[in-house]
Amino acid sequence: MHLALLFFVSLVNDVRTLVAQHDYAAAERAARTYQSQSGATPEYAAALSWIARGALTDQQLDRAESYAAQSRKVAVELVRTRKLDADPWLPTALGASIEVHALVLAARGERSEAVAFLREQLAAWGTTSIGERIRKNLNLLSLEGKPAPPLETNEWVGTGRASLATLRGHPVLLFFWAHWCPDCKTMAPMLASLMRTYGPKGLMLAAPTKLYGYVAGGEPAAPAVERPYIERVRQQYYPALAGTPIPLSAANFLSYGCSSTPTIVLIDSAGIVRFYHPGAASEVELSSRIQKILGK
Fold first, then answer.
1. For 262, left (φ over 0), alpha (ψ -120 to 50), or beta?
2. How distant, in Å, are the alpha carbons of 3, 41, 161 from that of 199?
3. What is the pLDDT of residues 136-147, one digit of tens each?
4. Residue 261 and residue 150: Cα distance in Å, rounded?
5. Closest C-alpha to 176, from 274, 247, 238
């Protein structure tokens, strides 16, 4: 392995370990030492973003904001001479720095400023790999209480067919999943249980997914290969959800900000988003929220 890559792996591991130990002074020294030897590289920007994320978790808002700004400045400067997605660490650095800045603003009570910032960043980077991440944070701050974005339904997996428009008048649970996602598979029995309980009371389920460009083991795959692979995954891990509409579209993941899978969205019978949750959710929590929407 190239010496610089070894150094980077050590840098990232060290920074993450030190941040987990809340030793920000040491994490900062490690990053600065790397910078003095290798310059302001994508790896350095990514390390700064880890410090920013850790500080935000610890509610050290000034430190989080400072390191997010530094990470974003380095990343934006680097993007002047290369495409964002040409380097695997630039999206990590820039995406995290944007997220941390927005969340710091929200934590300070500046919610409208955070939303405006995210919209500005979405306009700049929405067509890159961090578009979903930016939209996720924008949705976390602003989607609940708003009309649900429509689903693109040009392609499907399985036999189910239904758009949000055709489901209007019913509460709808959207389950965004990926064929590679272990947490998604873990949630399948719970979703089936929810539908057994609330389906007879009007709840509808739709499970959007998208193509990722690979299949098992990360093997690159063209759409003609990946589509039938997704169907096999559906049959193997989600048999209890047979007949569930599964629109296949990257546009849906962008509009709903699904950089995390699963992402759960609960929509009331009038088409208004009442719950937006990137990541797995418990049956107890979802059941409680569904009952509120059903008025029972």
1. beta
2. 57, 52, 17
3. 999 999 999 999
4. 19
5. 247
Residues with pLDDT less than 50, the chain = 1-8
Look at residue 1 in the predicted model and tell me its pLDDT.
Answer: 33
- The CA distance from 155 to 224, in Å, is 13
Question: Are the beta carbons of 82 and 130 closer than 8 angstroms?
Answer: no
| Centroid of chain to Cα 236 | 25
**Given strand 263-267, what is the order of strands in its sheet?**
204-206, 172-176, 263-267, 273-278
- Rg of the chain (C-alpha set): 21
Q: What confidence score (pLDDT) does residue 79 get?
A: 96
**Tokens 């409208």 appear where?**
112
Count the Cβ atoms, other than its own, within 10 Å of residue 246.
Answer: 23
Would you call 195 exposed, middle or buried from its count of C-beta atoms within 10 A (0-12, 13-18, 19+)?
middle
Number of Cβ atoms within 10 Å of the Cβ of 145: 9
pLDDT digits (tens, 9 = 90+) for 154-211: 999 988 898 899 999 999 999 999 999 999 999 999 999 999 999 999 999 999 999 9
Contact 262, 135 (CB under 8 A): no
* Euclidean distance between CA atoms 35 and 38, whole angstroms: 5
> How far does Cα 270 stand from its chain's mean position?
26
